[in-house]
Amino acid sequence: MTFSATLNQAIAAGDHSLDEFTAKSILKRCGIPTVEEACAATVEEAVAAAETLGYPVVLKALGRQLLHKSDRGLVHMGLTSTAAIKMAAKAMQREAGGALEGYLVQRQITGRREFVVGMIRDEQFGPMVLFGVGGVLTEALADTVMGMAPLSRTDAFEMVGAIRAQKLLEDFRGEAAVDRDALADILMAIGRLALAAPLLAEVDINPLVCTPSGSLVAVDALFTLAQAAPPATAREPVDPMAIGALFHPRSIAFIGASATLGKWGHMLPHHTISGGYQGEVHLVNPRGGTIAGKKALKRIADLPEAVDLAVVTLPAAKVLGIMSALAAKEIRYMVLVSSGFGETGSTGREMEERLVAAARDYGILILGPNTMGISNPHIKLHCTGTATMPESGATAMVSQSGNLGTQLLTFAEAQGVGIRAFCGSGNEAMITVADYLEAFAVDTQTAAVLLYLESVKSGPRFLAAARKVSRHKPIVLLKGGQTPAGRRAASSHTGAMATDQSVFDAVCRQAGILTVQHSMDLLDLAAAFTAMPLPSGKRVAIMTLGGGWGVVTTDLCARHGLEIPPLAPELISEIDRLLPPFWSRGNPVDLVGDNDPSVPLKVMEHLLKWEQCDAVIHLGIVGRRGYIEKLAAAVEHCDPSVPQTLTEAAVHRIATFERDYIEQIAQLMDQYGKPVVGVSLMKDARDKTVYTVDGVHQKTVLYETPERAVKALAQMVRYHRFQRRSQRATTPA
């Protein structure tokens, strides 16, 4: 009988789960090793089975309604005689009552290590395979990891290596290390089973026992059933070239343009025109008049031919009515700012669905609705609700929150983080995050992707698109709504361990997405990935103008998995020629307040030449200008007799040094291909995070704190590891 036939038969009988014997028979057919066992209808048959298997044995109550048998005393281990089996069977009869359908007799398996393998079916992402520390403490220890099916062998090995209790997988108290290849096979088999049997709601193998030889045996198994297969939720993908065209309009028509200050129909055209957009701009308002210094047209029909993009700010109820007029003018792209659609409830969702159907019929691609606009600084298109105009660059950004998106754009403008393209994705009625990712994957000007997400429309498409991007470009993601509202109703350990956030985290890890916890982390990583080369390893040299910062940064590096290697003797000798005899002679390198402006760069170059160094963090060397300015002001206040030219010269010297230092750091990164991450001693409104140097490919990055610098570098190291694993996984043997 096939998997599906077995499950359909059980569901037809009204069962919500399979008995353990049937569940393990399916596992065997999947190639998963199971304990040697026999099914018995009576106590006498159980005794006979025990004698055939050989003592000691385990006796279990068998029944489709008997879940979590250990908790109810329905598992008796180490039985060595007929009398012991009969006594255990009587105890089970009292506890299980009418739910007892028979007995399961198993050969006793020895092994100190127990794991759990399972599967749950997530609404967004489909079947998720789980692996972790098993036994009765599975939920208490919560040392588990998940991966979305189907699993590649690389995925499976990543899961095995992700649990905290790695010592259990190695040689352990005289027992051999776990057979990781066999464990990966089991995880992949569960993923295949889940895809082949959509009526399986949950799978729970607990414990999966590791024997003293390192082999694995499934000792217990629970399968719970779904009453119907999950519905297909396929969305029609959008051509990446169409998304590219939407962000490169040669002409824009604002439908619903307004002369009223503060309305969207007023803000968007004003910001677009004042931002320097060079394409044609047309304004449509039924009353005509003059808006933003331009004559407004009264009808869409009055527009000239070949307008590329319509930016619509009409009330939601009026949008469907303009679709035919837009199509008549051959307008193929729409940014729908209007709210009042799917975000408002069932009535709004129905209206949104009708709009999408009409858009497909007319061949119009809609961004939104309920978006706060788009930005493409490369063509000076700043069509957003705020007058934020970041410089052009290589960071693509999509936000499901308009407010957060606006804040990120504002920070990017202030900190010198260049933007490739930005949009508030709104309700994603037609263009989803997965579509944007596929467009960024083929866009040659995108070097890094920033996402703020609260949900995804299609989990499998999102994972596939993210993987495609991550092989070549980092994705940095901030997830909204991370606090779990509650655990899903589940009858297995696997289901109890799976929360929405744990599922999402697993998918991100599988896709190589770098997740962050704070909005500024997005910009910090955008700066790192678009300005500096990736480190080839995790070994860090620290150079500081004060000992305390070096200590703090060393601790931070250790917490984030970075290594601080000791300086090589020959390197110490080189630096001895540059610094006073009382310098630290170790990593971190304390410059001991040396005032020679050439020294930091000379030390920096020695560190970059060092083979044991993959990246350099420098602290406090830039940012002294503000202190000198304050000192000069204090001198002028206290002693007016001091020539102003003297204090001005001091300020000029430090400003010149810092400018030259910033330029030469970028040049050194170009030369040695290693990242150099800086921390400013003090920043003010004139300072940025990213500094572009004319004629130099790399850019200098200066963060405000050691914490931000180390976090950014650690994520760069993590991403580089992912890239190397991906390349190995896709390289033919």
Explain the overall architecture.
The chain has 733 residues and is α/β, with parallel strands linked by helices. It has 4 domains: 36-107, Dna Ligase, domain 1 (2-Layer Sandwich), CATH 3.30.1490.20; 113-225, ATP-grasp fold, B domain (D-amino Acid Aminotransferase, Chain A, domain 1), CATH 3.30.470.20; 240-529, Succinyl-CoA synthetase domains (Rossmann fold, 3-Layer(aba) Sandwich); 532-721, Rossmann fold, CATH 3.40.50. The strands form 6 sheets. Strands 1, 6, 7, 8, 9, 10 and 11 form a 7-stranded antiparallel beta sheet that branches. The protein has a 7-stranded mixed beta sheet with strand order 20-19-22-21-23-24-25, sandwiched between helices. Strands 27-26-28-29-31-30 form a 6-stranded mixed beta sheet, with helices on both faces. Strand 9 and strand 10 form a beta hairpin. Helix 8 crosses helix 14, helix 15 (459-470) runs parallel beside helix 17 (500-511) and helix 22 packs antiparallel against helix 23 (644-672). The radius of gyration is 32 Å and the shape is flat. The two termini are 37 Å apart. Residues 484-497 have low confidence and may be disordered.
